C-alpha cells in the first residue's frame, strides 16, 4: 500500500498542477483583454479581433484545466477511499502503474484516458459517482465562436469608452482614434 500512497500523492499533485495551469490561462486571458483595448483605441480592429480570439481560447483552456483538475481530484478521493477500505484490486494496480508518467506529462487527452480507466475500475468497486462525466471532448474546440469574440470586443470597447463603429481603414490613424488614445494617456 505504500506504493499506492505515492500514486495518491501524485494524483493530488497533478490536480494542483492542473489548477495552476488554469490560473495561468486566466492571467493570459486578462493580458489579451488589455491588448484588445489598446488595439481598439488605435482603431486597429483586425489586431483587436486576434486578441479577442486569443482571450476566448485562453478562457476555454482555463475551464478545461479546471474541469480536469476537479476530475483528477475526484479520482484521488476515490483512491483514498479504496486505500482506506483496503479494496485496491489487481486490475486497478495495473492502471496505477501507468499513472505517474501520464500525470507528469500534463497532456489533457492522456490524463483523460487514464481517468477513464480509473473510473472503469471504480465502477466495479461501486464507488463511481454521478458527477464524473466526460465533458472534455465537447469543450476542447480549436475554433473560437465568433459571437463570443464579437461580444468580447464590444465589452472591451465599452470599458475603454470607445465606439466600435468607428472602424478605420487599415493603416490609417484618424483624428478620432488619436484623440481618444491621447486622452487616455
From TrEMBL:
<dbReference type="GO" id="GO:0007034">
    <property type="term" value="P:vacuolar transport"/>
</dbReference>
<dbReference type="Pfam" id="PF03357">
    <property type="entry name" value="Snf7"/>
</dbReference>
<protein>
    <submittedName>
        <fullName>CHM1B protein</fullName>
    </submittedName>
</protein>
<comment type="similarity">
    <text>Belongs to the SNF7 family.</text>
</comment>
<dbReference type="InterPro" id="IPR005024">
    <property type="entry name" value="Snf7_fam"/>
</dbReference>
Amino acid at each position: 500500500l505504500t506504493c499506492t500512497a505515492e500514486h495518491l500523492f501524485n494524483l493530488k499533485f497533478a490536480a494542483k498542477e492542473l489548477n495552476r495551469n488554469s490560473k495561468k490561462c486566466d492571467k493570459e486571458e486578462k493580458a489579451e483583454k488589455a491588448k484588445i483595448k489598446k488595439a481598439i483605441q488605435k482603431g486597429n480592429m483586425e489586431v483587436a479581433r486576434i486578441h479577442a480570439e486569443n482571450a476566448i481560447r485562453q478562457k476555454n483552456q482555463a475551464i478545461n484545466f479546471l474541469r480536469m483538475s476537479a476530475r483528477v481530484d475526484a479520482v484521488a478521493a476515490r483512491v483514498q477511499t479504496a486505500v482506506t477500505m483496503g479494496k485496491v484490486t489487481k486490475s486497478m494496480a495495473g492502471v496505477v502503474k501507468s499513472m505517474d508518467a501520464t500525470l507528469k506529462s500534463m497532456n489533457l487527452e492522456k490524463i483523460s484516458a487514464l481517468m477513464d480507466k480509473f473510473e472503469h475500475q471504480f465502477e466495479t468497486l461501486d464507488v463511481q459517482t454521478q458527477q464524473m462525466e466526460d465533458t472534455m471532448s465537447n469543450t476542447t474546440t480549436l475554433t473560437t465562436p465568433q459571437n463570443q469574440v464579437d461580444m468580447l470586443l464590444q465589452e472591451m470597447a465599452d470599458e475603454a469608452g470607445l465606439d466600435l463603429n468607428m472602424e478605420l481603414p487599415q493603416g490609417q490613424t484618424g483624428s478620432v482614434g488619436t484623440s481618444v488614445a491621447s486622452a487616455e494617456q
